[in-house]
Amino acid sequence: MKFRKLRIRKLTIAAAAALLIGAMQPAVSQIVTKVAAHELSPQNIILPGSVNGMVTFRSCGDGCDEEYSRARLTADTRFSVDGRTVKFEDFRKDFAIIKQRKRSYALLSVDVQTKTITSIQIQG
Fold first, then answer.
1. CA-to-CA distance for 92 and 70, rounded, in angstroms?
2. In angstroms, rounded to a whole number, what is the distance separating the alpha carbons of residues 122 and 124?
3. Largest Cα–Cα distance of the chain, in whole Å?
4. Cα 69 → chain centroid
5. Residue 98: how many CB atoms within 10 A of its CB?
6. pLDDT tens string 13-52
7. Which of 56, 64, 107, 108 is least surrounded by CB atoms within 10 angstroms?
8. What is the pLDDT of residues 81-116, one digit of tens each?
9. Alpha-carbon span 13 to 2, nearest angstrom
10. Where are the beta strands (DSSP E) in 41-97?
11. Is 45 within 8 Å of 68 (Cβ atoms)?
């Protein structure tokens, strides 16, 4: 009976030690960005003629050295003007007006893996 209690205690201590050692190890997982959000001036966005084209954009204004980026639109891309969802054709019309305003801004959400724009939101 003593031998059995001693063996249980040893196993319990060994299990507790293993848990403590495991808890002290640094995390191995990495944070992976799936969707990149770009806040920028609408003046730094070039829209394509159709919903199946490529959008050209850069996050900084005039005088910066940042290269333009490109991502494609799809039928699943969502378009928003001043908080309301619109179709691409209406978005293009509103975009032409809003991009002229000094306080306007845009938010592009881009799927990093597929380089596809999931949504474009503009505020005037």
1. 18
2. 7
3. 87
4. 15
5. 19
6. 766 666 666 666 666 678 888 999 999 999 999 999 999 9
7. 64
8. 999 999 999 999 999 999 999 899 999 999 999 999
9. 17
10. 45-46, 54-57, 69-72, 78-81, 84-86
11. no
Tokens 């959000």 found at: 37
DSSP one-letter code for 65 = -
29 SS3 class: coil
Q: What does each C-alpha distance from 91 to 1, 3, 76, 112, 119 come to in angstroms?
A: 80, 79, 14, 23, 12
CB 120 within 8 A of CB 108: yes
The tokens of 67 are what?
Answer: 């290269």
- Tell me which residue has tokens 């801004």: 105
Q: How far is residue 103's CA from residue 119's CA, in Å, rounded to a whole number? A: 20
Q: Within 13 Å, how many C-alpha atoms sit on residue 124's CB side?
A: 14
